[in-house]
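The data layer described in this paper is built around a simple, fixed record for each protein. Such a record has a labelled line for the sequence and another for the backbone structure tokens. For reference, a complete record is included directly beneath this paragraph.
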Amino acid sequence: MNRSGFLLDLFFVKTYNISVNDDVKVLVLRTRRGDNKPSPDTDLFGRTLEQWVCCAMRGMDTESVDYTEGDELLPVVISHLSDARPITVVLYSDTPLITYAAVSEAVARFKRENMNVMRLPRGWVIRTDYAKTTDKIYTDRIITPGDDDFVTVFSYNQLAYASDILRSRIVYFFMERGVEIVDPNSTFIGANAVIEPGVKIEPFCAIKGRSIIRSGAHIGEHCVIDSSVVESGADIKSSTLTGAIVYGGASVGPYAHLRTGAEIGAGARVGNHVEIKNSRVGAGSKICHLAYVGDAEIGEGCNIGAGAVFANYDGRKKRRITLGKKVFVGSNATLVAPLEIGDGAFIAAGSVITENVPAGGLAIGRGRQAIKENWGNNAFTRSEEEKPTF
């Protein structure tokens, strides 16, 4: 189960040990400012600006409302009041760094001082029954709970500023829980990632989407892990994973690309400049150099040579290739789908294989080598004076 988003929200909720406010309703105003400006739906580490505000208010009764900056605020608030909540907090979707602690502290002070209206740096706290009777929301009293909590994203410059603060919060959240991050300043972790204690992450890595990194995994420099699972003991070096699974003890990279549906078995090795898509690679198998594997099932203990290509597309549809256990595919071989190759089969280097190969068989699909003697006097070996002119 992916619990990362929940854990991050607890970080913002419980950092200051403040209890949930059952008597508060939060209105989040989805504020838009026109074209070429950040909107409530602008992405920030895997969540929209609006979602960051709503998730920070986890535990409170929260409702999002469309709002155009400059319109009268009171009618919007009145139309969404709840009689069951004596206090209404109005926030804006352009404050993605807001924390539960900041709002809860403001509400606590609001209660202590028996206020009707409290103005926040970007928002309001209003007594619900007062909002029904007043003709204007206004007060001179401005409360500032935290330095960064109400950073407002009006422009892409401000979005970058907020992004840097939020990135740091997320990274240190995981470090405090036992994840070794060698260079926090160059590491990017999305809001929906799960990273267990005992993981080591080298510099210049991005972990995005609903990725899960298990304890004992190693993420080397310059990796992008997007919506993928890396199991305990796996080692990823300078590679990109998108929608892939890498099982324990497997090694990936450098410069490999695992696309959606790639599954790398325990102890398998995927090496330099290998691309794998929608394929299972069996435990202990090796694809070490410059290969493309698409829509394939590769059994345990296979060896795929340098430059091998699994030709899975016939111009109309994708077809599958199945290899049994301990199959050897020589360098620069091309396997043309659909194809089945039995256990222990051997594919000669440079072959183009279009027919099934039985277990234990040897398949050679290349032209016979021809030798032409006395070929030394060819255009390549001639001196400059001997070469013909045109």
